[in-house]
Amino acid sequence: MTIKQVSEKYNISADTLRYYERVKMIPPVTRTAGGIRDYQEEDLRWVELAICMRNSGLPIETLIDYLALFQQGDETIPARLELLRGQMEILEEQKKNIEETMSRLSYKIEHYEEALQTGKLVWD
User: Fold this and answer.
1) β partners of residue 67
2) Nearest 5 degrees, angle CA 29-CA 90-CA 26?
3) Of 43, 78, 84, 104, which sees the most CB atoms within 10 A?
4) pTM of the model
5) Distance between CA 49 and CA 27 in Å, rounded?
6) Span(s) in the chain for CATH 1.10.1660.10
7) Which residues face 31 on adjacent strands?
């Protein structure tokens, strides 16, 4: 796939894809004999991982560290596992905070809906 096709498929800019590669968030992308990026399935899996991890809030530096560990081989599996576990803990805390906020908002919404129906606000 061309960089344009990958950009359209994942709805990210070609500049972002080049950036991911330049800062080593993803491994070097397969290239044609002429040096044009030619994304293969393995390249796309790395792009998908980078997008997923960035969407979860994972810092760029952590992705760079993850790739560096991956490229060092299987002896870094424990370190990669620990890195991913740490990110999971962060996400679980964020999820807990979001759920608490949603619960409070639901409570407020119910009371305002009741106020609209009864004409009086019992508790704000």
Assistant:
1) none
2) 5
3) 43
4) 0.76
5) 12
6) 1-72
7) 37
Of 90, 22, 112, 100, which Cα lies nearest the Cα of 60?
22
Per-residue pLDDT of the chain (124 residues; tens, 9 = 90+): 999 999 999 999 999 999 999 999 999 999 999 999 999 999 999 999 999 989 888 889 999 999 999 999 999 999 999 999 998 999 999 999 999 999 999 999 998 999 999 888 777 6
Contacts of 85 (CB under 8 A, 6+ apart): none
| 3 state DSSP class of 25 | coil
Query: CA nearest 48: which of 77, 6, 3?
Result: 6
pLDDT computed for residue 124 by the predictor: 60
Radius of gyration of the chain (CA): 22
- 100-109 residues labelled b (16+ CB within 10 A) or e (exposed): eeeeeeeeee
Encoded amino acid at 76, one letter = T
